[in-house]
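Final paragraph of the annual report: two paired records, presented back to back.
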Amino acid sequence: MMSKAEVKKIVEESIRPLRAALQLHDWQFVLVYDTSLGKDRAACTRDCQRHAATLTFNPAELEDEQDVLWTLLHELLHIYHAEFDLYLDSVKVPVPKQVFDAIEPSFHNACEHVVQKLERLLMLTFKTSPKKLIAAVRRREN
């Protein structure tokens, strides 16, 4: 468990270079630190049309700097499938509520699996980590 101040410091120092590494320059982020997420480390809510997202971090579930950095990267990777949120929103109205309620969990589960695969791709195929991505961006800036 980490303090809110510790998590906030790591996130605020790291989000800009990670955004740059992931080419998310056109997205705006609101950062929230909240222990009401239960056992979840973090959550990402996206608004594709405004290119805005809220990243919520649960300090009670984060263990150390590496955990915070991988969690931040994970939540930023969710931005890549934000356009699919538009699809989900578009079927919400014409589809009966019972059908939508059956589809929505599968959609979110699929999104989570895609993000996990992207993480593995970065880690295993490209042999990188959040710290390496941050360092590479900072070297390019100097």
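The closing record of the year follows.
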Amino acid sequence: MFDHSTINIESEFLKPLDRDPAEVVDILEGRLKEFALGEIISEHPNIYVLERKGFNLFRPYFDLPGNIGGLNSVKLLSNSKIIRIRCHSKDVLGRKNVLVTDAIGKGNEVNATLSTLKKYSPELRISKVYAYLARKEGLDRLIEDFPLIQFKSLRVVTSPEEYQEEHRRLFCVYHNRMEPIDGEHPYEIFSVRSTGSDILHDVQSIIQSLYSGKFNIKEDKLLINSKKAFTVNILEPALVLREFPWYNPEVCEVDRMQFRFKYDPENFQLRVMALSLINYSPNVLSRLLQRIFGNCFKKLDVRFCETSFGCSTHSNQFIATCCPHCIDCNISLYLLGEFKRILVANSIFDRDNQ
């Protein structure tokens, strides 16, 4: 049931740019393409992109036919002490690999990733790190900490103010793309028809059809005026979790359950992403029982654990039989599937252009 008293439409108003955001997108896309194709790909066949924003930023260029056999990526998941390595390249042992990221501020994320790879995956040797944007202070710190690795940034700035301004320009690119920054969560992009009604009203109707509890809606402010974005927060996740007999609240709990939408009214596209963020801090008893009797691999669609393109787990604190990211993925896939099931029967769904 939709409770009108709980509508919470908020916008994070961003400072205006010195030029039209669409023009900023055109300029940056040109620079990114030249940087990716002309320098990174032409010199290095074995590339790993740092998730999340780096993956979103460079994916259109590294995914072009004929460049590489697949997009390799690395993500350090601090909440579960996992480093996930998606590797589509062969014979990585002994090869020179490069790491690509969107931006280097203080350098903490790149530092942690390189240190973790060196400790737990020494066979994946990183010889060079590329970034589109970097603060000189953070870049110098990385050069000092990793003297055997080369660092190259297309744009280097000195002050925090310059870095923030350039970073805001990058967000024009993120906001313009339909693919989410959180690409690890399941999503689909659907073609829809123009019905003359507000897309938010259509989405609200679908949510009410698949979920009987309370929810609220948050409108997300974008730098690109031609697109709309909004988030539906599921306020009673227990109503969804009862669909999963394997779900054990003593082992983990859903901290946040959401649908995130982006709508392009010019091209009539609707992106739908579902996520179920997991808090994972079981007590000693449940940890022991789960380690002995855990059945993640039997009952779940294992998306991130023990697969050829999955994650490497290197923590004694991690329960390999019950990965929080697999739990998130399975719940989110169910939510996305239910939304799609109702959407395809709705008049706004465009079957001719799927």
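The radius of gyration is 22 Å. This concludes the annual technical report; the extension proposal builds directly on these records.
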